[in-house]
Amino acid sequence: MNGSDVIVLLAYASMLVEMTVFPVPSEASTWQLLACERVAGEGALARATRASLWRKVLWFFVPTAIGVLLFLVPLCCILWPAARAALVTPVSPALVGLGLLLVVAGRVTTFVATLQLRAQQRAGGGPPQGLFRWSRNPGLCGMFVLYTGLCLVSGVPWLWLGLPLYVANMHQRVLIEESNLQALHGTVWHDYAARVPRYVGAARRSHHARPDGPAADGPVAQTGIAAWFDATYRTKGLRYLRPPRSYPIFVQLLDARPGERLLDVACGPGLLLRAARERGVDASGIDLSREAVALAKQLLPGVDAQQGNAERLPFADGTFDCVTCIGSIERFLDRRAALREMQRVAKPDARFCFLVRNASTLVWRVWRQWLGRRQVQGHQDARTLAQWRELFVQCGFVVQRVLPDQWPRARFRQLLPWWRPRPGRKEPESGSLVPLRWCNELVFVLRRERSRA
Fold it and tell me: Is the domain covering 3-195 a CATH 1.20.120 domain?
């Protein structure tokens, strides 16, 4: 046994002390998820507890068991020389040294995070302290670093294969746990999650809107969002949006008929207004961006396009037969207020069609959140399928249909002349090749509740 073996053994000993003396309870632990007790609600934790036993074993117990066994491999190589001789390949001293640094750094990070979390729990909560001001899961980050260090120190090549499995398994638990925290703490958790990254990165200083209500005081304001869109439309024009031929499907989903009145909220440069007018529908629009409204009036001379706020629509009660909002509800600072306004200006039997961004996709989670490609100044946000459905129902809508965004499939049809729909013809409606909850954007077709009509 050499010096590196001693350091690794101390790391394992500190893990044992941490788990026995300083345990931190979790709603998403393996044994908690395998328990028969079910959690009420529609969040990720509730869905996980309602899953069948075989699914729980497959998705939670098996990955955890494999992860535990992999974590014990370096320990076995130290304690049993026969295992070391069979599994270990020579490792350069430089890699061993790097591995030891990662082992120590990982254990210190996780242990400190555990102590800070317990201290905060004993104090009854309050603002995040210590490492939790920079990461929502500093302890788990330390475990990832520890595992990487063990892979370098142990010299067991196939141990690296367990790293993506371990990360994926723990990330799944984090999503379940955060869903539960969102349900318990509401806007407090949402504001914290908007400022602090899930794993690594600098704390964000800008405040985002609360989930569906008024935004907290901070840099994000209507004027700032309007300025961002003005600059975007000024530099990119129509190139900022999907092509015009992607908009007629929304008019069709509403079954909008000639002579009816349609309002497009956040109409941009008026591409949906043009699709509606081509079908004889009397279309009006409103947008926060002055530049977007100017483009709409250039594209459609005489169109009723106004500059204004979706939370205070300048139209009389019961004016419109159809209301659309394409790709913008997630950007509103007060979504509930905007949805109430859309209902106010709509007739009792009006139809609604909304295109919204899904938060349960790799595009959103990896590209937008982890890699920081989120348009913060434009207040870019997303919700999950269940969260959107819940919001619309709470605001008095009846969800009639939920479809995937139709443009990705229609884009390929444009390449085939015999499959390309002609202007004014019925557009093909496509289902999803993957589960709906994984689609990048979702189309909701809704009506008002009769009791609120």
Answer: yes
pLDDT tens sequence across 137-170? 999 999 999 999 999 998 888 889 889 998 988 8
Mean pLDDT, residues 393-416 taken together: 85
Query: 34-44 burial, b for 16+ CB within 10 Å, e for fewer?
Result: eeeeebebebb
349: nearest Cα among 325, 391, 320, 310: 320
Q: Summarize pLDDT for 39-49 with one digit per residue, the tens.
A: 666 667 777 77
CATH (residue range 222-452): 3.40.50.150
- In 300-406, alpha helices (H): 335-344, 362, 385-394
CB-CB contact of 68 with 111 (8 Å) = no
The answer on pLDDT for 257 being more than 60 is yes
| Residue that has been written with the tokens 């328990």 in this structure | 35
The string of DSSP codes covering 144-168 is: HHHHHHHHHHH--GGGGGHHHHHHH
Pairwise CA distance, residues 406 & 396, whole Å: 25
Amino acid type, 144 = F
Judge whether 3-195 and 222-452 match in fold: no
> What residues contact residue 322 under an 8 Å CB cut-off, 6+ apart?
251, 254, 256, 260, 261, 262, 263, 281, 350, 351, 352, 353
What is the C-alpha to C-alpha distance for residues 108 and 149, in angstroms, rounded to an integer?
A: 13
pLDDT computed for residue 38 by the predictor: 67
Instruction: Read off the pLDDT of residues 328-342 as tens digits, 9 standing for 90 and up.
Output: 999 999 999 999 999
Domain-wise residue ranges, the chain: 3-195, 222-452
Q: How confident is the model at residue 208 (pLDDT cuts 50, 70, 90)?
A: very low
Owner of token pair 């129902």: 393
Q: For residues 288 and 226, is the Cβ–Cβ distance under 8 A?
A: yes
pTM exceeding the 0.85 threshold for the entire prediction: no
Distance CA 193, CA 381 (A): 12
| pLDDT tier for residue 118 given thresholds of 50, 70 and 90 | confident
Residue found by looking up tokens 């348009």 in the block: 375
Closest CA to 264 of 306, 300, 301, 222: 306
Quote the CA–CA distance of 291 and 307 in Å, as a whole number. 9
Quickly count: other Cβ atoms within 10 Å of residue 123's Cβ: 9
- How high is the mean pLDDT of the chain? 85
**Would you give the distance in Å from CA 328 to the centre of its chain?**
15
Q: How many residues does the chain have?
A: 453
